[in-house]
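Collaborator request, handled under Task 6.
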Amino acid sequence: VLTEQGDLAEARKFYKEALETRLEVREKHSVAETQLALAQLSIEEGHAADVEAEIRQCKEQFRQDQQADDELVAGLLLSRDLRSQSKNTDAQKEMAVNQSLGERTQSRLLGLQYELESARVELALEHPESSRAPLERMRREAASAGFARLTFETMLAEGELEKKSGRAAAARAQLTSRSEERRVGKECRSRW
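Structure tokens returned to the collaborator:
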């Protein structure tokens, strides 16, 4: 919740306290989950290079624990971390490694997150048009499933696609239009 509210410092404090407790209990899987949450905060704060090795360690712990979905979550965060460092080819390789996990997950949300990260890697590699149809489909799917955050993230990726395709004005109009659609939709739902 703190992360969602933008209070990264308080979220970091909370996760560090949780990490201390989990280290005392010596539960490797829980430690890795907490370290992964701290790594995500570091990426949000612009310190991607500082956490790459730690994310890899977490991913390996999840692999050893045979927790495929957690391993996929770590792999997606690693890809994001690599993109943040402009290591786009490495991010592409990471997504290739994650492909079987992404295809096997039973979680609809995690499957869509895998697809979104794949599209973002393609965008980072300057292949925007190969991302257009998948992003449109993902946005519709995420919206119909009620995954608001994922819908928003997909819309942002679509805006990035339009910008990379040389259509910055279209990107702004698209995001503004969708923002207005959400506002009107909320008003209508509140009246029912």
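The cover message to the collaborator said: "Residues 187-192 have pLDDT under 50 and may be disordered. The two ends are 28 Å apart (CA to CA). Please let us know whether this matches your experimental observations."
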